[in-house]
Amino acid sequence: MNYKVKLGTLVTSLVLSGYITTIPVAHATSYKISPPLITTSRFITSNVGSHEVSVRQGQNKIDLDVSVTKNATASEIQQLLDYNKNNVYNLTIRIPYGTYVLDQELRIYSNTTIIVSTGAKLMKNHQRGAMIANDMSKDNGGYSTTENITIDGGIWDSSMIAGYNKGTESFRFIHATNVTVKNATIRNVPDKSHLITFAGVKNGTIENCILFGYNGETLKEAIQLDIVHDNIIVPSMQSSSILYDDLPCDTIVIKDNLIYNFPRGIGSHTSVQGVFHTNITIENNRLHDISEAAIKVYNYTNTNIKNNIIDRAGVGILVYTTIANEEMNYLPALPSTKKQPLPKNYRIVIEGNTIKNMRQYLEGSTLTWGDGIRVIGSKARPLSNVSIRKNKLTKTARYGIFVEYSPNCYIGSNYITDTYRYAICVHNSNSGNLYWNQISKAGAKNSYYGGIGVSYTQNLKIYSNKINVTAKNGIYLNSTTRNCNVTWNKITGVAAAQAIYADTKDGHTVKNNTPKVKK
């Protein structure tokens, strides 16, 4: 049984099941349909004017599928998005091959999917606002302002405004649940811009996207995870409607993306006291030609960073709880925020990553970074329980792996070669384990660096490492270390007197190493 319903200027054939009596549509006439209705799941489509529309009765909502007119304006696309203003439909909007100049921010509502044909280009031609953002007009805080959003495919390009020196996201999602961005190319933003921002998002996924192109000097992330703190940290065209509540991101998956030619790849550069992003997965991404940090994790817990390939960056993976300019980046919580205590166990896993060609970043007149993996805690906020294992690090301008104020760290089964300074450096990090690492060509020629260097640390276990060809010592524990255990390590390529430096007067246990040297 077929029914024709007028949707503004659209006409569609409906095949409905169940007992729907009215079909409300934004900007449209509602028609009563009397039961009983024939049960079927078939779509019946019709081309009406320049739109193709399909409607069927879903389990909980009406499924509405609309195709955009080729080369439609932003206003015309927004009219179709507005069909779901009142959250009546499971709305799918299809954008065919063509070029679409967007002169306004697109607003997307709950239960909406945008599917963009291969090669279709959406060109941003406005400075204020994102290319697309979720609607915040009914925001009450929390994760449920917008739910169930998918953007699939398309080339989203801001090159028309890239020279304007004006910060803007391409995609911005705030206070949302179940947001997926996939198979999209997002590119060419001006200074002070991100390509994708998730702020206070739960169950978010960014996968199989190509992200590149930044015209500026300010350090920004291609993919940014943020906390909904205020309209400076999380700006929006809709800021007057947003209930700022210090909401972090929870359960985010960023995988299988290609990111390049950007200051930073993935992560965060601001945080709020007592608030932590949690359950973050960053895996199988390829990042290259990143000015500063490829992956920058600031106050995250329960985070897995696995199987990423990073080439030519200032630092490959940076995990930290404290850093310079903290007064600008570590913000007091809002009065209404329920702060979490500092974690005793951050549960950060850095595993299976390939990191090569790390080069120092010139910040003003100072060279900095150049490390493969860097973990930075502080005395006040130690970054406990970080596991760094099975990574391959090649050619770093400074350290291979450097950890500080990271108690109970596990650094094992890493392959590290060709580092300018120590392959592994441990500072102020008690009770950790360094094991089964393979190290070669550690330390620049004629330098005092070597394979493993330790300072201001107690009760560290260093065992079963293979260290070959270092500039100075194979393993060096300076006079600030106490009660470390150095056993079953094999060191070659240096003089026996330089294999291990660990003064047993400081309580160290040094035995069963090759060569059998202790000092």
What does this structure look like?
It is a single chain. The longest helix is centred in the first third of the chain and has 8 residues, at 74-81. 3% of the residues lie in helices and 46% in strands. The model is unreliable at 1-50 (pLDDT under 50). A hairpin with a 2-residue loop joins strand 3 and strand 4 (51-57). The radius of gyration is 27 Å and the shape is elongated. By secondary structure, it is mainly β. The N and C termini lie far apart (91 Å).
Task: Please render the helix and strand layout as text.
Blueprint: E1 3-7, E2 10-15, E3 46-48, E4 51-57, E5 62-67, H1 74-81, E6 89-95, E7 99-102, E8 106-108, E9 112-116, E10 121-124, E11 132-134, E12 146-152, E13 155-157, E14 171-182, E15 185-190, E16 196-207, E17 210-215, E18 221-226, E19 250-255, E20 258-262, E21 264-267, E22 271-272, E23 277-283, E24 286-298, E25 300-306, E26 309-320, H2 326-329, E27 330-331, E28 348-351, E29 354-358, E30 361-363, E31 366-368, E32 373-376, E33 386-389, E34 392-396, E35 401-404, E36 410-412, E37 415-419, E38 424-427, E39 433-435, E40 438-442, E41 452-455, E42 461-463, E43 466-470, E44 475-477, E45 485-487, E46 490-492, H3 496-499, E47 500-501, E48 509-511
Parallel strand pairs: 2-4, 5-6, 6-9, 7-10, 8-11, 9-12, 10-13, 11-14, 12-14, 13-15, 14-16, 15-17, 16-18, 16-19, 17-20, 18-21, 19-23, 20-24, 21-24, 22-27, 23-25, 24-26, 25-28, 26-29, 26-32, 28-33, 29-34, 32-35, 33-36, 34-37, 35-38, 36-39, 37-40, 38-41, 39-42, 40-43, 41-44, 42-45, 43-46, 44-47, ...
Antiparallel strand pairs: 1-2, 3-4, 4-5, 30-31
